[in-house]
Amino acid sequence: MADNTIRFILNGDAVETEVADPTRTVLQFLREDLRLTGTKEGCAEGDCGACTVVIVEIGRGGDDVRIGTINSCIRFLPTIDGKELITVEGLRGKDGGLHPVQQAMVDEHGSQCGFCTPGFVMSLYALYRTNDRPSRRDIDDALAGNLCRCTGYRPIVAAAQSMAGAADHWRPADHAAQLRSIARDGALGIRSDGRCYFAPRDIDTLAELYESRPHATLLAGGTDVGLWVTKRYRELDTVIYTGGVRELQERRVSSSHIVIGGAVTLADAIPLIVDHYPGLDEMFRRFASPPIRYAGTLGGNIANGSPIGDSMPALMVTGTSLVLRRGAERRELPLDEFYRSYQVDELEPGEFIASIRIPLPEDGVIVSSRKWSKRFDQDISAVCTAYRLALDGDDVADFRMACGGLAETVKRATACERVLDGARWDERTIEKACAALAADFRPITDMRASADMRLFAVQNLLRRFYLETIADAPGTVYDYGR
Q1: Runs of H (alpha helix) within 164-259
Q2: Which of 30, 125, 177, 230 has the fewest CB atoms within 10 Å, counting from its CB?
Q3: Residue 482 has pLDDT above 70, yes or no
Q4: What is the mean pLDDT of the chain?
């Protein structure tokens, strides 16, 4: 039965509202319906951070809360059902005064034109709540999703450094209790003017819904689907939200694999992957921004199938496979066999990614990934590469390389791999492998890079990987500055 009413906590108060348009964004609701205009619209595509708000949820243990930032401009309103939302208006103290984060921004002169300031404040607030002694790198990472057109980052960083240690009146138990008080017993369903929104709670219901409605839009984090609405002005008639499906939130490590459910957010998936594959740390730190990683999912990044998706090269070289489900049927498919052509994959109508299976690393095997873009933080890759290298003495026992940004899909560099497999791991062989990359890829020219520059970059990234393996180059760009 449809229940068009959602319940959530907004700045400390319980809110109940009827949803007429399932794809209305949180930003539209805040600014146009509630006149909470502190949250700004800059880009409407989750890039600039002016719309940043904080979301609070019950933790996975059930007794605590977890906190993150999201881009309200691309987040659909029904997806915050049962959650807590904090906007810049909600930071004021009980006496009406400034929050310590806001006071730090005033003291350090962190606001210039002021348009981006609320978004920066909310990103700093999330950092304040989760890290009481942030390093400069922690601060830079936390602010990676916020752009200041006045180039005023120095005083904002100073505010982040000075806010540490200041106390407020936050009590996690109070927030957890309030969230439990509005928890929904069953699934949420919305029907309005011929449009439908479903939020199933278990995988069997999801499979049944999607099999019977194969043309519905599966919605996870909305970091791509949101743009269909805000930029392409598409009307989505039927939306099935996967964020509440228990089984799709699975994260575990078996004796042979890391298993990640299809709706696990990047913020939750990345630490587990990097813990086992530390060579992927830099690439994943540069993957989008904290608000995107907190909302977007690893399964969604894979299913989206963008040729510049940053997770796929690394997952391909590790031998990742996908568990796909349609109705009651399941099948497993290697990731490097998943893509047919540009954003066309092997999913059948009504089929979805149930889980991602990443083999555990082998002793002595090197896995690394590198991202090349115009901007270090919060930028789309021009090229993203990943490598897996197993050596037998000075010879290559096994080599895998996958690249994004060089073809209509992310794909393995098979000609390059053939040159290296069984060969001596030295500079002469690397030069032959670099030449073979021209046979593997025919890149295009676009706004991010020319075809020649892309090929030149991917060859140099392979050379860099070689130098890193012989300890002749820094292991990460963090070693020589952001």
Answers
A1: 172-181, 203-212, 225-230
A2: 177
A3: no
A4: 94
Co-location of 136 and 175 in the same domain: yes
Cα distances (angstroms) measured from residue 78 to each of 116, 187, 204, 244, 298: 26, 12, 21, 12, 21
Which residues touch 447 (CB under 8 Å, ≥6 apart)? none
Angstrom distance (rounded) from CA 58 to CA 148:
32
Residues 121 and 238 occupy one common structural domain: no
Residues 296, 205 share a domain? yes
Range of the domain at 391: 364-482
The predicted-structure confidence for 369-415, as pLDDT tens digits, reads as follows 999 998 888 889 999 999 999 999 999 999 999 999 999 999 999 99
Number of H helices, E strands in the chain: 16, 20
Distances (CA, A) of 448 to 133, 273, 285, 340, 391: 37, 28, 20, 24, 35
- For residue 104, give the nearest of 155, 69, 51 by alpha carbon: 155
Say yes or no: 220 and 103 in one domain: no
pLDDT tens for each residue of 325-339: 999 999 999 999 999
In a domain, 156, yes or no: yes
